[in-house]
Structures are given as C-alpha cells and as structure tokens.
What we know:
This protein is mainly alpha-helical. The protein has one domain (6-68): Orthogonal Bundle (Helix Hairpins). The chain is built from 3 helices and no strands. This is Cytosolic protein.
Amino acid sequence: xxxxxxxxxxxxxxxxxxxxxxxxxxxxxxxxxxxxxxxxxxxxxxxxxxxxxxxxxxxxxxxxxxxxxxxxxxx
Length: 75
C-alpha cells in the first residue's frame, strides 16, 4: 500500500477496524499515530507502511500546529 496522505493512513487503519475522529483534527492525528504504532508493535503492518504513515501524520500534526493548510502561502 502506498501511503502519501492522511486519507491513506485512515484507509490503512480502516482495514483493522479503527475509525478515529475525536472532534479535534490535531488530537485525531495524534490518536492515529498512536494506533499506527500499536499496529507496528504487534507486527500487523510492515516497516515501510509504518514509516510512511508516521511521516504523513507528523507532517500533518506540524501543519496543524503552524496554523493549518496553506500556511506557507501566507507570506
């Protein structure tokens, strides 16, 4: 599976019955990261899927911390 977006991460989690929405985007992303780590720790996903998912989620979390989508356009 190719993981390039948060949606791709959601689809991966969906395969394991995990649907995450807590009402706050950053909190949801952090919960997804926790779930991805648990799947990896239990050897349910491969290293490359784990690494790609973590990269996507950490980038999305950083984006939320810096003001959301398109913050780089505000200069």
